[in-house]
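Hi all, long-time lurker, first post. I run a small reading group and we've been trying to get comfortable going from sequence to structure in the token notation. Rather than ask abstract questions, I figured I'd post a concrete chain and ask someone more experienced to write out its structure so we can walk through it together at our next meeting. Sequence below, copied exactly:
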Amino acid sequence: MSVKIRVSFTDAHELDYLKKQLQSDIENCKVSREKKGDHYNAYITLKDADINENSTCNKPDTAI
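-- Answer (accepted) --
Happy to help. Here is the structure in token form:
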């Protein structure tokens, strides 16, 4: 399972800070060339991780 995050930022140093914090977990980071209003967008894909069934995160409900 991979996790994808969309990040909005105004200055490059904001994205650099986030990338530094997630450094060991980032698989890919793509920065959009266009500015959306006052912000730029970046798309970060995190490396696959083993998900523990007893995770403290809430799992999404499944609809039938």
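A couple of things your group might point at:
Residues 19 and 25 are 9 Å apart (CA to CA).
The chain has a mean pLDDT of 85.
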